[in-house]
Amino acid sequence: MGLVALAVAGFTSACDVTELTPATLIPDSEAFTTAARIESAVLGVYESAQRGFYAGAVQRGYPFGAANVEQGDMRGEDMYNDQLFYEITYVGSYSPNSANNNGMWISLYRMINRLNIILDNLDEAIANGVLTSEEGNEYKGEMLFMRALAHHELLVHFARPYSDDPSSMGIPYRTFGIDDVTKVPEGEAVGRTTVGEDYTQLLADLDAAEGFLPEGGAFRANKGAAIALKSRIKLHMGDWAGVLTEYNKLTSKYAVTANPATPFRGGNSSDNIFSFVNSAEANPGVNGALPSMYGNPDLGARGLVKISPLIWRSDFWNAEDTRRSLLTTRDGRGIYTDKYQDATTYTDPNVILRYAEVVLNAAEANARTGKLAEAVTLLNSVRSRALPASVPAYTVAGLGNEDGVLTAIWNERRIEFLAEGRRWPDIHRLSGEGKMAGVPSKVASRSVTNIDFYTTDRALSLNHSIEYSNSRFIWPIPLAELQTNVTAPIEQNPGY
Length: 496
Hints:
CATH class of the largest domain: Mainly Alpha
Structural class: mainly alpha
Number of helices: 19
Mean pLDDT: 93
CATH architecture of the largest domain: Alpha Horseshoe
Largest sheet: 2 strands, antiparallel
CATH topology of the largest domain: Serine Threonine Protein Phosphatase 5, Tetratricopeptide repeat
Helix content: 40-55%
Strand order of the largest sheet: 1-2
Number of domains: 2
């Protein structure tokens, strides 16, 4: 909690990353006296999500401008670390002092504190006539959605999965804001609840958000986003009926795009449910932006992260799949994602929730409850749109049984969400359930030196696996958090 106190002063200072125009610095005491100032405070939360806190500065896209993708990918095996930049995460050598995991913790709780301050003041603004009830409730919905999104990101990095033991240590779930130093002890008293209690609060926040939010475009929190996030969270809980309930709410509102590249080309699409905006004026910068970090150096990017030869050479990714051609580029050193293309001004949005994810969540929920035909139909709706008609669709008989169908769904998730940061959350939940053994072996960091590692059967050096039982499977709580929380220090994760 001590680190959250960093967010106390001047919380409404913001660049308007939704409308892409600057906002004025507003004293906290005046932030809720006009509708325009409240709007500025809300947009400040989006900015704190898009360009938060890292190593003492506002940069590098923490937590949701880019860092959630980069850290989520580097904890898995399907994207490959090519330089020192992400090595700590990729090889699993993080500590309570390492910058990447500390940056995620600090930036998420700073964001949570900002939105909680707004939530604490909205009822008074409504009562004073500054906002109508409808306006105030919409803001409540946005902030509750963002609070759930942030806390779930903390849970998948810093706590053991719900699928293992809901009674295990969770994270501090913060539901009130600290806008004065006299409130810091009260905040410090919020300790680590259980994973199960945290998930209960996640769903309570999202149920409320769903009721408050209107339908809307992808660049502000909206009703569909709250539903889609519930689908994700219920998947992590193994609540298969709940996953299908949320899916059924969205089937008439969204659709998987025929072209797999469409969701990444900057605007709204039928597949885009919620994204964070980046712009030429407000972005994670050359040392954080997705097109810079992930893009082809021949196209002006830094190219610190490639697609791993492991997935490129896998037998489950069909050679004729258009996601190989439409969404990748290559040079003599390797193959890169092309989902993010603007390596000059870094304007590619960070897509957080897509309908394709909701569909594959529902496919898995159907398979888990014995409805294999329904599961395969949903799986094919994502897979077959990227394949020529000459490639047969999956069938239940061809996949064998429930295990075969589930494996196909999990492999499809690896392909469809490649370079979107979704691999780690799947490793997290499936390892907790015993479906995976932990972090799989990866291609050894900085060992892939040319394109032959992709296009031939050249031997790959493997390393960096982490067994589920190993303490390094989850990140440590930052040492600074433990040291600055003087009144009620929270418990460190075992092994650190």
